[in-house]
Structure formats: structure tokens, C-alpha cells
């Protein structure tokens, strides 16, 4: 009886693994063209300098490919190294690539409510989380681990005008109605906004001066709640212009 039960459990587990394997295979096959696009782009923006890989962007070439490009985002340790696009509806780049081909993984994109110079009080950058195979903003979940949060204190935003080194100030597991999605702060409400952000965050060192510098918030779905929930993962940085070379891990 026990042997039959054990064999039955093993059969179920094996079947489940086969289903997962099939889904991964199908996803890889479906998104292979888009994946090739991203990998090619990521190779083009790297300069090898001795043993270092330096991130550098040819903006003329990138904008010639698509004038909707507004920047580039690099988050060390998360596999995030992508161009940022912007349309006027927050819908097109949910399922289109830089080269305007359809793909359900979409692109990384700046909120339509933000200006493309990233000079708003809080600029929101969106990307999908992808089950099984990763990519896009999936790696933001790494910041849920306190040691990872402490050991990866910066991410980088590059634009045609300036490069920014963004000091990580908060990580939040929250919902889509979070205070972190507010893009403009009046002077009189900054104190209450700061308090709300601090209370919503899993980790936070946000202070008043961060709100003055301007925030960059990276947003993705929290897959712990499934694909269609309103739960989100948010990584928030305070931006500062940098002239230093950006070394890729």
C-alpha cells in the first residue's frame, strides 16, 4: 500500500515537472526572437577595457532604431540591463519590443505621466516579471533578501543628457495603489508622503533630501500572488548625476 502510494506521488511529481518543463520550452521558443534582440543590444552597449566591461550607450544609434527610447536601466545582480521606452498610453510597450515587434514580455518603459528627462519628483519605470525563465524586471525580487539589499546599494540610469547613480533607498512588497506610484509632490505634502513610503516599505532609508533629489522607482508584479494580482515589487532609488565609468558585473 505504502509503495503504491509512494509510486503515485512520484508519478504526480514527475508529471508536474514535465508540465513545467513543457511550459519553459514553449516560453523559450515563443520569445526566442525578442530574447535575441535584447542580447544583441546588450552586447552593443559594452566596451571591453582590459578586464573590465564598461556600459556605454550610442544614443544616436539607439534613437535611430526607435525615437521612443528615453534611457537605459542597469541593476547589478538582477540581470537587468535594458533600454527604457515611453509611449503615451502605458500600454504599447507592455507587449512590444524596441523594434516594435509583438512579444508578451514587452519592454522596460517609463510611465506616460512622467517627463522623459526624469526630472519629476518620482519617475516610475515598469517591467514584467516572468515566470520560469526570468528576464526583464524579474530579478527585482532579489532585493527581498536583506543581505542582497545591503550588498547591492546602487543601480544606474543612463539618459542622452546625463548618467545617474541611484542610491537604493527602499524596497517594498505592496500593491498598485501604493504611495510609491505618486509622481509629483507638493511642498506641503512631502512630509506625509515620506511617512507613508517608509511605512509601506520592507526596507527603507528614505529621508526628506531624497524627495528633493528626485526618486526613480522600478515596478514589477509580485509573482508570489500569481500573474493577475495587484501586488507589486518596488525598488526605489535617489538619483545623483555621475561621471564615473559604469562597470558591468
From TrEMBL:
The keyword Ubl conjugation does not apply. It comes from the Bacteria. The chain crosses the membrane at residues 7-25. Pfam families: Sortase. Keywords: Hydrolase, Membrane, Transmembrane, Transmembrane helix. The keyword Magnesium does not apply. This is Class B sortase.
Amino acid at each position: 500500500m505504502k509503495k503504491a502510494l509512494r509510486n503515485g506521488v512520484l508519478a504526480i511529481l514527475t508529471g508536474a515537472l514535465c508540465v513545467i518543463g513543457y511550459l519553459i520550452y514553449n516560453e523559450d521558443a515563443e520569445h526566442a526572437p525578442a530574447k535575441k534582440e535584447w542580447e544583441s543590444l546588450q552586447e552593443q552597449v559594452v566596451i571591453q577595457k582590459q578586464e573590465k566591461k564598461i556600459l556605454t550607450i550610442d544614443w544616436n544609434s539607439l534613437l535611430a532604431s526607435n525615437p521612443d527610447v528615453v534611457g537605459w536601466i542597469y541593476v547589478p545582480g538582477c540581470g537587468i540591463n535594458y533600454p527604457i521606452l515611453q509611449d503615451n498610453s502605458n500600454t504599447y510597450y507592455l507587449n512590444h519590443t524596441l523594434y516594435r515587434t509583438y512579444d508578451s514580455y514587452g519592454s522596460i518603459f517609463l510611465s506616460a505621466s512622467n517627463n522623459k528627462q526624469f526630472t519629476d519628483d518620482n519617475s516610475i519605470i515598469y517591467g514584467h516579471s516572468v515566470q520560469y525563465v526570468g528576464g526583464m524586471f524579474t530579478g527585482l525580487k532579489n532585493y527581498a533578501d536583506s543581505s542582497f539589499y545591503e550588498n547591492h546599494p546602487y543601480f544606474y540610469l543612463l539618459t542622452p543628457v546625463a548618467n545617474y547613480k541611484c542610491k537604493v533607498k527602499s524596497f517594498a512588497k505592496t500593491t498598485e495603489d501604493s504611495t510609491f506610484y505618486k509622481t509629483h509632490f507638493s511642498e506641503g505634502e512631502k512630509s506625509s508622503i515620506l511617512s507613508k513610503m517608509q511605512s509601506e516599505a520592507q526596507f527603507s532609508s528614505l529621508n526628506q533630501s531624497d524627495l528633493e533629489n528626485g526618486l526613480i522607482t522600478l515596478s514589477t508584479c509580485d509573482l508570489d500572488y500569481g500573474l493577475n494580482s495587484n501586488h507589486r515589487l518596488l525598488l526605489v532609488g535617489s538619483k545623483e548625476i555621475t561621471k564615473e565609468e559604469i562597470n558591468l558585473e
